């Protein structure tokens, strides 16, 4: 029987409710799983995981790419990774000033945690997104 050959690339698709944020043949991808970062190479065993907020990085050819992502799932197959997320921004497209303002707003709301007007969960999620955007953009601008 012929030996099965391992794939050498992964077809990566990152999909948000509004757009296809990435469609690339990649040799490596890492993303924020719920229990920490997960790195995937071609031939990885199939799995389905929830995503946390953070930075998704991948290598395509000689280029490294980075996006801030939040809120979704990733399906990993030996030669495909499909990422379905609420938001995804490429590092170079992140508006740092906007993310800093969002972070300040969320922190301010969290300080007023006893105020019944404050939606704590919403503030925590907004803070998480803002931090992910700032961390992703910081590496790009470093
Ligand atoms: P803000 O309060 O600044 O709107 P948010 O976290 O509430 O931040 P989201 O609801 O997550 O914003 O995103 C709304 C849209 O704006 C999405 O398309 C998202 O990709 C984009 N977006 C949000 N913040 C930024 C940013 N700092 N830079 C670039 N795009 C952003």
Description:
The longest helix is centred in the last third of the chain and has 22 residues, at 120-141. This protein has helices at residues 96-111, 120-141; strands at 10-15, 20-26, 28-33, 36-40, 47-51, 54-60, 63-77, 80-90. The protein is an alpha+beta fold. It folds into two domains: 10-92, F0F1 ATP synthase delta/epsilon subunit, N-terminal (ATP Synthase, domain 1); 95-141, Up-down Bundle (Single alpha-helices involved in coiled-coils or other helix-helix interfaces). It contains two helices and eight strands, in the order E-E-E-E-E-E-E-E-H-H. Strands 1, 2, 3, 4, 5, 6, 7 and 8 form an eight-stranded mixed sheet that branches. The chain binds adenosine-5'-triphosphate (ATP).
The ligands found in this model are: adenosine-5'-triphosphate
Tell me the CATH superfamily of the largest domain: F0F1 ATP synthase delta/epsilon subunit, N-terminal
Apparent shape: elongated
Distance between the termini: 51 Å
Low-confidence stretches: none
CATH architecture of the largest domain: Sandwich
Structural domain tally: 2
What's the total count of β strands?
Answer: 8
CATH fold-type name of the largest domain: ATP Synthase, domain 1
- Assess the beta-strand content as a share of residues: 35-45%
SSE string, helices as H and strands as E: EEEEEEEEHH
Radius of gyration in whole Å, from Cα? 17 Å
Mean pLDDT: 93
Number of helices: 2
Q: Can you identify the CATH class of the largest domain?
A: Mainly Beta
Query: What percentage of residues falls in helices of 4 or more residues?
Result: 25-40%
Q: By helix and strand content, what is the structural category?
A: alpha+beta
Main sheet makeup: 8 strands, mixed
């Amino acid at each position: 029987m012929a030996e099965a050959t391992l794939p050498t690339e992964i077809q990566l698709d990152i999909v948000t409710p509004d757009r296809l944020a990435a469609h690339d043949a990649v040799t490596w991808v890492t993303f924020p799983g719920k229990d920490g970062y997960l790195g995937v190479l071609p031939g990885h065993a199939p799995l389905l995981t929830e995503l946390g907020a953070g930075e998704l990085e991948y290598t395509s050819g000689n280029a490294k790419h980075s996006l801030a992502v939040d809120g979704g799932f990733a399906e990993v197959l030996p030669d495909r990774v499909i990422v379905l997320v609420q938001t995804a921004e490429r590092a170079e497209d992140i508006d740092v000033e906007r993310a800093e303002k969002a972070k300040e707003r969320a922190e301010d709301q969290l300080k007023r945690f006893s105020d019944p007007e404050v939606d704590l969960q919403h503030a925590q999620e907004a803070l998480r997104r803002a931090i992910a955007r700032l961390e992703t953009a910081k590496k790009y601008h470093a």
